[in-house]
């Protein structure tokens, strides 16, 4: 994996959590709205975002394992 791919993955992960690269709601805001105000729609969006985060984390874990195994 080259530096560009690593940066792309990092930015994808960061955007999913903070939403800095998009005008859409982000998980941070949705979690605050759900826990702080009881907004059920925000809870649904947060759950959807967390599922995406889980999938992305698993993909990154597999990439790391592949890189580690191929370097030894």
The tally of helices reads 3
Q: Describe the global form.
A: elongated
Spatial separation of the terminal alpha carbons = 15 Å
Share of residues in strands: under 5%
Low-confidence stretches: none
Overall pLDDT score: 84
Largest sheet: none
Number of strands: 0
Order of helices and strands: HHH
- Number of domain units: 1
Q: Structural class, judged by helices and strands?
A: mainly alpha
What integer value in Å does the Rg equal? 15 Å
Helix content: over 70%
Q: How would you summarize what this structure contains?
A:
The protein is mainly alpha-helical. The chain has helices spanning 3-18, 27-37, 40-71.
What are its keywords?
72 residues, mainly alpha, 3 helices, elongated
Write a structural description.
The chain is built from three helices and no strands. The protein is mostly helical and 72 residues long.
Reconstruct the topology from this structure.
Elements: H1 3-18, H2 27-37, H3 40-71
């Amino acid at each position: 994996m080259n530096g560009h791919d690593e940066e792309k993955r990092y930015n994808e992960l960061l955007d999913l959590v903070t939403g800095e690269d998009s005008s859409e709601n982000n998980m941070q805001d949705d979690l605050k709205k759900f826990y702080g105000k009881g907004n059920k729609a925000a809870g649904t969006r947060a759950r959807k975002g967390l599922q995406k985060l889980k999938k992305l984390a698993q993909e990154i874990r597999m990439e790391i394992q592949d890189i580690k195994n191929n370097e030894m």
